Amino acid sequence: MEFKETVVGMDLDQRVLRTDAAGMPLEWIDYQDAVRLYHAGQVAYTCGSLLYTLHGGVNSLTGRRSEVAVHSIVATVGAGRRPGQRYTPPLNNNALFRRDGFLCLYCGNRFSARDLSRDHVRPLSQGGADHWNNVVAACKRCNHHKAARTPEEAGMQLLAVPFIPTHAEYVYLQGKRVLADQMAFLRAHFPRSSPLHQRLS
Question: What string of H, E and C letters represents the secondary structure of 80-124?
């Protein structure tokens, strides 16, 4: 199905938040994936702001031009499975740095992603794991100073306890440009105890 893009208030790089029919966040999709879901009849409902309207060809019988209005949040049926209770998202630096608010969890200063590094609280050389529960964002200076030592051995204080993001939290962490309505929707699915509530306030 070919569509000519007509942008309504947003560029086509803006991602759509896809959920299941119960409203649980699943993933970010682009406008082409969103149109495919509409075409396949898998969209249960939409909410949030209108991102863009896409126009297709003209129906030879009715003379009407096809049109798909894509909103910022699209609930779908029959595609994808909800992650189980023991879901552990894949660890990557981009999500890690966002989890920690782009702060060095030793000195407390904010840095750009290029000036942060992944620090293993319990060093790998001491049997520590490369796992969400054992890694924090650290500036390169603090990481270098800590070296292959625990924070206690290096005389450094860890400012927050590392945690494993839930699936909804991980979907947020993977978002590149999260709109206000998408953010509110995602936060409603964060655990009440999630440190992200405070970091996003």
Answer: CCCCCCCCCCCCCHHHHHHHCCCECCCCCCECCHHHEEEEECCCH
Measured in residues, the chain has a length of 201
- Look up residue 14 and give its two tokens: 């803006």
Report the predicted TM-score, pTM, of the whole model to 2 decimal places: 0.85
Tokens encoding 37 = 């879901």
Residue whose structure tokens are 């390169």: 140
What stretches of 9-90 adopt beta strand conformation (E)?
Answer: 16-20, 25-29, 43-58, 65-76
**From CA 96, how far away is CA 141, in angstroms rounded?**
18
Tokens of 172: 């947020």
Identify the bridge partners of residue 43 per DSSP, sorted by sequence position. Answer: 76
Angle at which helices 167-174 and 180-187 cross, to 10° = 160
Question: Of 14, 15, 16, 18, whose CA–CA distance to 75 is shortest?
Answer: 18
Q: In the β-sheet with 25-29, what is the strand arrangement from edge to edge? A: 4-7, 43-58, 65-76, 16-20, 25-29
| Residue entry with tokens 């998408």 | 182
Q: What is the pLDDT of residues 128-176, one digit of tens each?
A: 999 999 999 999 999 999 999 999 999 999 999 999 999 999 999 999 8
